[in-house]
Fold this sequence. Notes:
By secondary structure, the protein is α+β, with helices and mostly antiparallel strands. It contains eight helices and four strands; from the N terminus they run αααααααββαββ. The protein is about 55% helix and about 15% strand.
Amino acid sequence: MKGIVFTEFLDLVEEKFGLGMVDQIIEQSELPSNGVYTSIGTYSFAEMLQLIQNLSANTGLSIDQLLLAYGEHFFNVIENSYPGLLATYKDPIEMLSSIENHIHIEVRKIYPDAELPTFEVLEKSDQHLIMIYKSSRAMHHFGLGLMNRTFAHFEMTSNIKIEKIKEDGTEVKFTIHKT
């Protein structure tokens, strides 16, 4: 997993819960990196899982709630770092339906060895989108946070339904409607 995912996660933890919480979850975790990350480094997903689990245990928030908040936070990183990418889209449905064929291609230019989920578009219209998310990591709530912020970016609202295809959350169907 790319280091930017770790550095931004720890930034979010500091922003929402304080620097003491960052230290606490790092100390509670058994991290080969010792909690020292660079945005361009590559680290084990197991480290992220430990950090999220410890944050959940310390805050009482579920892992899904934390991943949702993190996805919303991470959209701000994209918005600030890659405004040109977002400017190529006029609509959230258009943007979300292009994750696999445009956005992930651009991500791979920056991070060639990034392990990204796949998004298969099943149905698309101006008002709705149905996609299948597949990943070895059950981080679909991170994706939901990104989707929520995508609609907010375009000053639109949505109704997004998640249906687990695989119980472990590694394959999920997103049904998205503009409201």
